[in-house]
Design goal:
two-stranded antiparallel ribbon
Length: 218
């Protein structure tokens, strides 16, 4: 359980500026392109189909420079999950934070402020994150706090522009939340493959965010 101890005791940067400087000094950008598979979910009865999404040719260094819009929010990813799925979520967070891009993840067990109201922490986590991973399991569907956070994310980005990332595990397609029917989902069969799909989807959104920012400045 060494990785678990490192996860819970991972030192947090004292400021966003320290994160900016550490990433800006990096000299090993990731591959210029990768792909993300996702499952079609236009209706709960639709058979699963995968399609590739080519990432834009923007390196990890580009999304981490000091003036990147990535730093406008405290976190790159907020993981919405039930208490019973904590072990899987810890593995996912460890994977994302261990990537060359050092994705900043909000993990409620680790990052919530002691003494704060649950509803305040959930809303702040959504508002201060670029992307939201919804780990939809039987526990998620039965947890009212998970539903609440899902609705907060949808209210924050109602057009589903890549920020909300539903991940289905051990849930039948007919039970896929109706609120998410217009959003493609990742079906978790192989954990390692799904982790990479989540990473690629977050990376794709951050790349597009940087590109949009650059175009506005031109």
């Amino acid at each position: 359980a060494g990785w678990f101890k490192r996860l819970l005791h991972k030192p947090k940067p004292s400021s966003v500026e320290s994160l900016k400087s550490s990433h800006s000094a990096s000299s090993s950008p990731s591959s210029s392109s990768s792909s993300s598979a996702k499952s079609s979910s236009s209706s709960p009865g639709t058979s699963l189909a995968t399609s590739s999404i080519s990432l834009s040719p923007v390196s990890a260094l580009d999304i981490s420079v000091s003036d990147s819009p990535r730093w406008d929010k405290s976190y790159d990813v907020c993981i919405c999950h039930s208490e019973g799925d904590m072990e899987l979520v810890e593995e996912l967070v460890s994977y994302l934070e261990g990537q060359p891009e050092s994705f900043r993840c909000f993990l409620q067990l680790r990052d919530a402020v002691a003494g704060s109201a649950v509803v305040t922490e959930l809303c702040d986590a959504v508002q201060n994150s670029h992307c939201w991973v919804m780990l939809i399991t039987p526990g998620f569907l039965q947890d009212p706090w998970c539903r609440y956070q899902m609705h907060q994310a949808l209210a924050e980005a109602p057009m589903a522009n890549g920020r909300t990332i539903p991940v289905l595990k051990d849930v039948d397609r007919k039970d896929y939340p109706r609120e998410l029917w217009n959003i493609y989902y990742i079906y978790m069969a192989l954990k390692e493959k799904s982790f990479k799909q989540i990473r690629d989807t977050v990376m794709r959104y951050l790349q597009e965010l940087c590109q949009s920012s650059t175009k506005r400045m031109e």
